Amino acid sequence: MSEFFLIFEMNGHGFFIWSAYGVWFVLLILLFLKVLLRKKEIKRKLKYFIEKNDGFEE
Amino acid sequence: MLRKLHKYANPNKFNSIIMPIKSVCLYTALPLIAIGLIIGLFFSPPDYQQGETVRIMYIHVSSAWISLFAYVLIFLLSVFYLIWKFPLFVLMAKEIPFVAIIFTLITLITGSLWGKPTWGTYWVWDARLTSFLILLFIYLGLIFIDKAFKYNVNGDLSFSYLSIIGAINIPIIKFSVDWWNTLHQPASVIRASGPSINIEMLIPLMIMSTGALLLFFYLIFTNIQSAIAEKKILFLSSKD
Predict the structure, then answer these.
(1) Contact A39 B110 (CB under 8 A)
(2) In a domain, A37, yes or no
(3) Which residue of B has its CA nearest to A50?
(4) Does A45 reside within a domain?
(5) 3-state DSSP helix/strand/coil % of chain A, to nearest 5
(6) Out of A16, A45, A50, closest to residue B114 by CB
(7) Which of A55, B16, B89, B206 is placed for a possible disulfide with B81 were both Cys, Cβ 3.0 to 4.6 Å?
(8) From CA B203, how far away is CA B214, in angstroms rounded?
């Protein structure tokens, strides 16, 4: 069990390494969500306008 | 040659081309990043000087490369827009800064977290760090111009001119470590005499960078599709 924690301790530099990876992960997830939510919202709006304009697509 | 490319300037045609490419990008990027993370964190060797902190390199360097590559892409698309006046070029260019600014932010934050155990400080005003911070502000400027002049030709022109002026910063970032005495280490991968980095570190770095690049393309392509759909909505709403 202690060997398992040694991997995460990274010779005393664990805080810097895991914080860096944490920031990287959180920012990429937020970016991913922002891009996908924008796409979803636009799809919803486009569907509404296409239905309103009798199936116009181009 | 150029005439053959004209048909791809049609947003609908372009949309149908990027659709399959986008999926390939995402489904290749995710396993590559996962493999790169596992090798980088648990199997690559520690550095003889920096020890375990070198593992930050796999996310720091890959993000830095994406930030610079993204700017080169914006610069090229802006030049193409000013020459050929295809609106699709500037539409594509405008979708890049928001994604690129996140990669720039990751580079600055992870670099800062790497700097503390290596240099003894989170930040120093050396040429590489300062020029990278300027890149962040240029991306912010491009985002503000896009928001301020939404759907306006003057906005498209302002965006293109600013991105061309800002491109001066790219060679400054690249060569800052050679031109000035900096705390930041000189280039160890992209250099004329070949990489000086250990192969066991180079492999996870290249895997992570390829994964990050494909993820970047996926996000950009999704944003471009959204922007094309936004234009359609604008057209349809103007008919009301």
Answers:
(1) no
(2) yes
(3) B236
(4) yes
(5) 85, 0, 15
(6) A16
(7) B89
(8) 17
Whether A6 is in a domain gets the answer: no
Beta bridge partners of B47: B51
Is B106 at the interface with chain A, CB within 8 A? yes
**Left if phi > 0, otherwise alpha if psi is -120 to 50, otherwise beta: which for A11?**
left
Please check whether residue A48 lies inside any domain of the structure. Answer: yes
B97-140: pLDDT as tens digits: 999 999 999 999 999 999 999 999 999 999 999 999 999 999 99
Domain range for residue A50?
23-58
Shortest Cα distance, chain A CAs vs residue B205, angstroms: 14
What tokens were used for B75? Answer: 């610069």
C-alpha to C-alpha distance for B129 and B134, rounded to whole angstroms: 9
Contact criterion met (CB below 8 Å) for A24 and B63: yes
Cα B130 to chain center, whole Å?
Answer: 18
